[in-house]
Design goal:
about 325 residues; alpha/beta; D-Maltodextrin-Binding Protein, domain 2; two-stranded parallel ribbon
């Protein structure tokens, strides 16, 4: 008797499933693409592999330290941004070899943005336009004589990088960089559009903001590794003195990382993580559903998996 394709697929899943259900803990950082990928990993592990996956909030430092200990408290980092988190990769992947990095990255970009209306009104196209007195005045929301520039959330490696960039671009005379949760910045962007005010902020892709608001990325000097030295606080207490950045960021590369001990504890999950291949468009669409429509990341992932069965099966070797 010839089996139907659906029965064949079901048989393969049964064969591929581990004898004992594998259990993993997924770190869940506080940015959109990480939450999207974390939700996707959870759904695939539970609905396709037959294992168990829990999401645990955490910063990059906490998640990498947990993976390094290898005791199952945190097993997976869903969205390692490089070179932003290069210090963690150098320590745990290259030196200690306690964490493994996937080989199928998807691409991203980062920089600084303003709303399109604000850009047109003041002819703002470059990061250095923020040094113009009239632009700084237009972004001064607290009345201290300086404009406000959101550089990222606490705990992000990119936030430290942006602090150095703002300093070395010569913006501190005109702009006050501040750290706050990303939700604060998103609310400010929306308010600035409604109230026709100015606001400058760190921006990156993939992200829901590109579909939520009409914004433009400001031009920066082209990335030059010779003019881009970033030392994170975890590496040196003197990080600000040792860092110097006078160019834009290099293109971003995002990967999944997992604890090396997971290879023995959850080999089926590891095989899936090694094969998983995402792209910017896919992640951006999921992030939009999560950020703009305020949907639960797991629900978004379930919907995506249901519509992309062949692609998910290819990650599972089916």
């Amino acid at each position: 008797m010839k089996l139907k394709p659906t029965l064949i697929a079901a048989a393969l899943v049964a064969v591929a499933a581990p004898a004992q259900a594998e259990s993993v803990i997924i770190g869940n950082p506080n940015w959109g693409s990480a939450q999207a990928v974390a939700g996707l990993i959870k759904v695939v592990v539970e609905t396709k592999i037959g294992g168990k996956a829990d999401l645990v909030p955490g910063t990059n430092a906490n998640i990498f330290a947990g993976m390094d200990r290898g005791k199952g408290e945190i097993d997976i980092h869903p969205d390692v941004w490089l070179p932003n988190q290069e210090n963690f990769v150098n320590l745990y992947v290259k030196n200690k070899k306690s964490v493994v990095l996937s080989k199928n990255p998807y691409a991203g970009r980062s920089g600084f943005c303003v709303t399109r209306d604000f850009s047109k009104k003041y002819n703002i196209t470059s990061i250095f336009d923020l040094t113009r007195p009239e632009v700084a005045k237009a972004t001064d929301l607290d009345g201290n004589g300086k404009g406000e520039l959101w550089i990222g959330a606490p705990g992000w490696a990119s936030t430290n990088t942006n602090e150095i960039k703002v300093r070395d671009y010569g913006l501190l005379t005109f702009m006050d960089p501040f750290r706050a949760e990303e939700s604060v910045s998103l609310a400010r962007v929306g308010d600035s559009i409604r109230k026709k005010q100015g606001f400058a902020f760190y921006c990156y892709s993939p992200h829901a903001i590109w579909s939520m608001f009409d914004i433009v990325r400001l031009k920066e000097p082209k990335y030059d590794p010779k003019k881009y030295t970033m030392v994170q606080p975890k590496v040196s207490a003197d990080w600000k003195k040792k860092s110097k950045i006078t160019t834009g960021d290099a293109p971003r590369s995002m990967r999944v990382a997992f604890s090396k001990t997971l290879i023995k504890r959850a080999p089926t999950v590891v095989a899936f993580l090694r094969n998983m291949k995402l792209d910017t468009a896919t992640v951006s669409a999921m992030v939009f559903e999560i950020g703009a429509k305020r949907r639960n990341p797991v629900d978004v992932a379930k919907e995506w998996v249901a519509k992309n069965g062949k692609r998910v099966d290819s990650w599972l070797g089916l």
